[in-house]
Design brief:
Elements: H1 10-30, H2 34-58, H3 63-92
Length: 106
């Protein structure tokens, strides 16, 4: 007796994306550590990328993959600048959290 396993449908990918985005949003709202908040934003961006690819595949259009390419380029630039700022703040004040905005004042 063999079972045929179908490929996941677009709905599965959209549900996965919604769960990942919700986890990222919840982590962003609940946690105060800047590094964890940064990772939650990246999780949310990846959830959006899954949505773009799933919808692009459903519509048989390359626009989804093209949008993902641009999102990944922006995310890479965000990682370079954002992570440098976060690491600098954490080195200067090891117990810093997101409420310590005054650290950024000149």
């Amino acid at each position: 007796m063999t079972f045929a396993v179908d490929a996941p449908t677009t709905d599965w990918y959209l549900m996965l994306s919604a769960v990942l985005f919700s986890l990222g949003a919840l982590g962003l709202l609940v946690r105060r550590n800047p590094l964890v908040m940064f990772m939650c934003v990246e999780l949310m961006l990846n959830a959006v990328n899954i949505t773009f690819v799933a919808i692009g595949r459903e519509l048989k259009d390359v626009g989804g993959q093209l949008a993902v390419f641009f999102v990944l380029v922006v995310a890479a630039a965000e990682v370079v600048v954002g992570l440098a700022i976060i690491v600098t703040i954490i080195r200067r004040r090891p117990g810093a959290n997101a409420d310590d905005i005054s650290v950024l004042k000149g």
